[in-house]
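Moderator note: this is an archived Q&A kept for reference. The question asked for a predicted structure of one protein chain; the sequence and the answer are reproduced below.
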Amino acid sequence: MSNQEQVLSEALQRAIQVVESVEDRYREAAFPIILQAFIGVPVTSASVNEASQEKLVSQTVEPSLPPTLSVNEFFRRANPDTHPARFVTAAYYLLHTGKAEQFSQADIIDIYHKLRQSQPKNFTDVMNQCIKKVFVIDAPTKEKQKCWVITPDGERYVEGLLNDNNGSNGVL
């Protein structure tokens, strides 16, 4: 077995171990994301302890938006036009302004209030649409409250919204 095959085999085994702890209904969506994270990180030894694995999967993202950017201004720039798009845009905003790495239903409702938007009638259905598109995945629960995190696919989706709305005037 070549060195590259060995590295891929180890990454695959580690991804399988991590995904085993994920709820059944999310495993299929979580597996490629976790595997990608392991493959993207250089492997220096044949064995990696559990603390290192957890660190690789849940890396901290540096805020890329100014923390003073209002949610109203950010949503005006992105212009999401559906509830799932708004959920993902809210998750992106929370992550990239440094306000939260994971979010709860209360965080989304708070953003809807700030935007003066009507809330979806079925929050769970909208969140399931986001999960099905692999824009968000479950996060470890805190204080018995269900939380989610935005995925790289979700981030790319919001960045696409921002780029689509960039327009010819050069203003985000």
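Archived answer notes: The chain is about 55% helix and 10% strand.
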